[in-house]
Amino acid sequence: MNTVKNTKYHGERPLFKSHDLQMENIEILDGESALKECQNLTCNQSYFNGKYPFWHVDNALIEDCTFDTNARAAIWYSNKITMKNSTVDCPKMFRIATKITLEKVNFTDAKETLWDCSEISMKD
User: What are the residue boundaries of the structural domains of the chain, listed by start?
Assistant: First the structure.
């Protein structure tokens, strides 16, 4: 598995089609679709503020992360997503996704979240 640490990303699709990638303390800032069409991702202690960061993603673990207001529509068309100990300040977080596990996730703006999603598990 490849690892990326302590890195800031700007612009369109900086990690497009990545696979088998572990991210630690990264920042996704302006731009769109940072992790589009990716698979087998692990993301820890990271910050997201660019639009649509996780679209068409299969198999991701997102832990101790923050999705700020501009990270709207963050996880769409994705499968097997686990999110733990994270804060979501943006609307439209999940849509048309399956096999979602949420554990200790704080949604401050859950407008239009989990639309057309299935197999959702929420804990504490």
Answer: 2-123
Nearest-angstrom CA–CA distance, 90 and 123: 20
What's the CA gap between 50 and 39, in Å, rounded?
19
The answer to whether residues 119 and 96 touch, using CB atoms and an 8 Å cutoff, is no
Model confidence pLDDT, tens digit, residues 73-117: 999 999 999 999 999 999 999 999 999 999 999 999 888 999 999
Type of residue at 42:
T
DSSP state of 15: T
- The pLDDT tens digits of the residues spanning 39-69 come to 999 999 999 999 999 999 999 999 999 999 9
Burial class (CB in 10 A: 0-12, 13-18, 19+), 116: exposed
SS3 9: strand
For 71, the 3-state DSSP assignment is helix
